[in-house]
Amino acid sequence: MRTTDISMPTGIAARPLDSRGYPVPAITPWENGTPQFASTSMRRVFLCVEERRCTVCGKKMQPGPVWRVVNGDEAEIINALLGIEKEYLNAAPTAEAPGHRTCMIYAAMVCPFLSSPEGRRGEASDMYGAGLPKGDARGSGGAIVAYNDFSFEQTAVGPGVVYGAPIDIINYNRAADLQEALTAALAVDETTAGKAPEWLGENEQLVESAFRRAMLSPAERRVLAAQKQAGQARKRQQKQAKASRRKNR
Prior knowledge:
249 residues
């Protein structure tokens, strides 16, 4: 299935583009004007989770279930447990943060690694001791799973996203298997409202600034807010004084 044949959600269409004209996901870092598709920025992941933003389009997610793509092994376990209505809780962290249902279906269809069993991992990964080599095949099966909750936590093996209980699942093997699900999702496209913040664009300095602000304590945030208000008051006073001088000339 060709990528050009797949309809794009509104929010993804608004993303910055790479040199080929492909939209760049919100969690993808940039280096010297080039998106690093094989990398994930944990700062971007953290900020998206903290602000409940989709990690693909960068727009806000409404209250309710959140979605992510899982591999065939995990999909098989979740299918079995949902089938017997047994709760499944996985306390292990992951660098894969959630997104809109529409965005995650689209991502699974167009990502070279996720879209087919023959898909190969572009870069090696040893996050959380997984030891996934470059060129590793995706393998058979996969799914887009809905979870009732998620959070960014510091765990024994490192910081990452921890999910609650899975409540729904869309199984697939190849991109074409998801066409009907994408059509249904686009009919109620939740990515049309709002917009992604500037710091989820191409400028990594803005990401760093947003991350530092997010790390401030409540007391530090109050101090900064007071300083901002004071600065705005000074600017108003200066503007009024300048206008008064002009009037009295």
